[in-house]
Write a structure and sequence with these properties.
Layout: E1 13-17, H1 35-39, E2 46-50, H2 52-55, E3 65-68, E4 77-80, E5 83-87, H3 89-99, E6 108-111, E7 123-126, E8 134-137, H4 140-148, E9 154-156, H5 163-184, H6 189-206, H7 208-223, H8 230-246, H9 251-263, H10 271-285, H11 292-304, H12 308-311
Helix pairs in contact: 3-4, 5-8, 6-7, 6-8, 6-9, 7-8, 9-10, 10-11
Bound molecules: iron/sulfur cluster.
Length: 329
Amino acid sequence: MVERMSNIVSRPRLGISSCLLGKPVRFDGGHKRNNYVTGTLSEYFDFVSFCPEQAIGLPTPRKPIRLIKDAGEADVRAVEVRDYSLEYTQQLDDYARSVTPEMSGFSGYIVKKDSPSCGMERVKIYGKENSPPDKRGVGIFTARLMAQRPDLPIEEEGRLTDPRLRENFVTRVFTMFRWQSLLSEGLTRAGLIEFHTRHKFLLLAHDETAYRELGRLLSDLSVKAVAADLDSFAAEYLRLLMVGLRRLARPGKHANVLMHVMGYVKNHLTSDEKAEMLEHIEAHRKNLVPVIVPITLLNHFLRKYPNDYIAGQYYLEPHPRELMLRNGI
Ligand code: SF4
């Protein structure tokens, strides 16, 4: 079923590991304040914080926990480092199950890396012997969250230092937020088709396969009377959209989209303008200039030669320009 937001909210609401907001909830009584989150993203997002270890009743400070898995075991377990008989796997999993419904209106989640509770990937899993840890673990809380909310954009704070991963995450968050706004207004066939139309070039920049697949799905919606169950149709649409947007938009893909967009104005461009536009696109394709450079020039030409279809494309501004996320990719 498609989740509907109970209230229309004016900006994205995200879950976050409490320690990243500077709350002293870690095992050692400290925190891991993330300045990009508290100084920049908090200008655009509302954060709701969760500390799973505190929430299951562990004190602060407390003995640290870790993930373990014996050779013969199927499941990873969260146990106290000094005493493996003290296990918290079930409590963390139950807590995640209990709070996930509260997150139905969330547009994303930022988790603390390396944590046996909150980490999203590459969390160390220890064996019983003194062998080196396997770095393929996922924190117990986040594993459950990802299973319950597979479409929710989730990212680790450590990965947000990478400009392309950061831009990708924020793009997904704002896309999810626009989707949730669409649902809160009441989903209609026309609304879904317009949503897709406006996200076409953005999706193309991330994943051409998903772009084609969703195009086919939407043409079914336009042509056939498949909207009897619009909710399940929309759930499948969102799933494919989020899978597609997870793929990184790299310079070659941006260059291809920019060539497409340029096609809509090229008949108006003088030969000098056309050459200038092509030069900027090719410079980005070769990764010599960030994508904001050709996009800025394109926007200049779009102001000079307006085109309603292109003006409506979120590709040109998928997130607030003040975040300057496209200046570094
Ligand atoms: S990583 Fe998660 S469990 Fe650990 S202190 Fe931070 S919020 Fe709490």
